[in-house]
Amino acid sequence: MSIEIGSKVKGKVTGITHFGAFIELPSGETGLIHISEIADSYVKDVNEFLKVNDMITVKVINVEKDGKIGLSLKKAQEKPVEHTPKERPQKSTRRQSNESFDDKLNKFLKDSEERLSTLRKSTDSKRGGRGARRG
Length: 135
Fold this sequence. Notes:
InterPro entries: NA-bd_OB-fold, Ribos_protein_bS1-like, S1_domain. The chain has one helix at 101-127, and strands at residues 8-17, 20-24, 30-34, 55-63, 69-72. With 135 residues, it is an alpha+beta fold. The chain has a domain at 8-72: CATH 2.40.50.140.
């Protein structure tokens, strides 16, 4: 039996490490479930989720050329499908305006130039201003 990416297979946990769990597949090959593919929540210790000799269903997520098989426990579990995506509520502080983009850009440039000129005046006076003597 060849292992196909995307297929779900049953396997037996043969070993647990700090980075994941090794699973023996029905074909006799061994795959690895990385710790990040065990559950949707944070997994601190693999032993909290799996034990050696557990029979589990996993999904094949990759098969490398050197024969390594990547498995996922969390992707093998059926999740309820959300029928309608929730719309983001509009912020009440956002104003709907009828200004064109050019009008908004011109207003922004004018405000920006005013702020920069105020900033320049303030920093020039602290540095001695224009034409101040040096030395």
